[in-house]
Every structure is written in structure tokens, then in C-alpha cells.
Amino acid sequence: MIFRQLFEAETCTYTYLLGCEFTQKAILIDSVDSEYETYIKLLNELELKLIYTFETHVHADHVTAAGHLRDTLGSKSVVHRDAGAMCADLLVTDGVELQVGEIEIKVLHTPGHTSGCTSFVIEDRLFSGDSLLINGCGRTDFQQGDSATMYDSVTEKLFTLPPDTLVYPGHNYSGITISTIAQEKALNARLGNNISKEAFIKIMDNLDLAYPKHIDRALPANQSCGQPNKSTTAVRQG
Ligand SMILES: [Fe+2]
């Protein structure tokens, strides 16, 4: 499998490119529109054809490149049914499995940061979006976020994956690129060390975070796959 972890510096967002070396078919997870040219160049260099763009959720901090890439490359955008992005080509739910060449992608619904959050399992890798960050997790005070739901998603769905599963998060603000389920179970400052649900909720209730800087621009844009002024024809499945 061809694999690249890409970084958008303004919002510290990780984007993941995965390609099948047998069919040259590829996917992007959590693309950022300002990085569009980088993706085009990389896909060309690696001779990959982009089939899907996946969103772990409707982002509040950056605008997705999904619509832009769909227009130019014909890729299909994939989000969870509850994400509120009816512009997508494919609306998925928990347990859905997709195949791109030889790459098998399993969808896990992991709400809590938002109601439509998903994580994706591909081989021994977990793409956890903002549901599970390295030594942290996404905030739960916007977009139908809920701390108790977040706790259940992480402890029941993500922490039950094999301990050596590689964790690739949606962001990291300290330059750390990778973790494992075992590491997060033991050391995650918010969710590790068998913390109780009550204690986790208390931590989240007391974060006292600032209003998300780009939310008023990014949310409506992402509910339109990054193209708020453009009407799209949705083909819904899943
Ligand atoms: Fe987020």
C-alpha cells in the first residue's frame, strides 16, 4: 500500500493519502482545500487515480478539498450520514466496508466530538480524526458534541482495537505524527489509564476553550463539501 501523511500547518491538520499499488486507485482522508495543488502534484507523481475523499467529520477549522477534487478529478466524497453534509456522494454508517483496489476501509461511527464523526480502519492503521488525538481528544462543546458519547466511542470502539494498531489522528499541535492504541490507552491525558466516564466529563466541562476561530466560515462551507456557493447533485448510498 502506498501511504503518505501530509500536514497543513495553519490548522495543524493531517491529511492521509492511501493508494493501491496494484490498481493505482487512491483515497484521501481529511483533505484541506488550501493544499489542493499539493494533492494534484502528488497524485500525478505517484501515478494515482483518486477515487474517494473521506471526511472523519464536518470540520470547523478548515475547508475540505472534497468538492474541488470532485470537480476536477471525478472523485466521490464520503461522510457519515449524520454529519450534515448532504452534498456528499456517499453517506456511510457504522460498520460499512468499502474497497478501493486492494485497500479495505472499515467505517466506525465514533460520535462525541461531533454527532457525525467517523474513524476509519485500514489494515493495522486507525484514522481517528478528532475522536482520538495523540494524548488528547477533540472538544465536545460544538456541533452536537457530547462528552459521555465521546467516552463511549473511544473506550468501546477504539480502545478495543488490537493494542498495536497505529493511530493516525486528525491533528497534532506538537509535531507528533503517530501513536498506537496501547499508548493512548495507557497515557492519553484525557481518556487513558482507565479513567471513569464521570472524571472524563469533568475534564471536558472544565476545558474553558475559546470560540473556534474559523467555525463560522468553515462549517457552512464543509456542509457543501467545501463549495458553499455551488449547488451539487447528491447521489446517496449507505
Ligand atoms: Fe474537528
Write up what this structure looks like.
With 238 residues, the protein is an alpha/beta fold. 23% of the residues lie in helices and 25% in strands. It is built from 6 helices and 12 strands. It has helices spanning 36-45, 66-73, 147-158, 181-187, 197-205, 215-222; strands spanning 2-8, 13-19, 25-29, 49-54, 76-80, 90-92, 97-100, 103-109, 118-122, 125-129, 166-169, 179-180. Strand 4 (49-54), helix 2 and strand 5 form a beta-alpha-beta unit. The chain is globular and about 50 Å long. The two termini are 25 Å apart. It binds fe (ii) ion.
Label this structure with key terms:
single chain, 238 residues, alpha/beta, six-stranded mixed β-sheet, 6 helices, 25% strand, globular, binds fe (ii) ion
Which sequence of SSEs, written as H and E, runs from N to C?
Answer: EEEHEHEEEEEEHEEHHH
Rg, Å, rounded: 17 Å
Give me the secondary-structure category.
alpha/beta
Unreliably modeled segments = 231-238
> Which word captures the global form?
globular
The main pleated sheet reads as:
6 strands, mixed
Helix run count: 6
Identify the strand order in the major beta sheet: 1-2-3-4-5-6
Mean of all residue-level pLDDT scores: 95
> What share of residues are in beta strands?
25-35%
Strands, count: 12
Q: What oligomerization state is this entry in?
A: single chain
Report how far the terminal alpha carbons are from each other.
Answer: 25 Å
Bound molecules: fe (ii) ion
Helix percent reads 10-25%
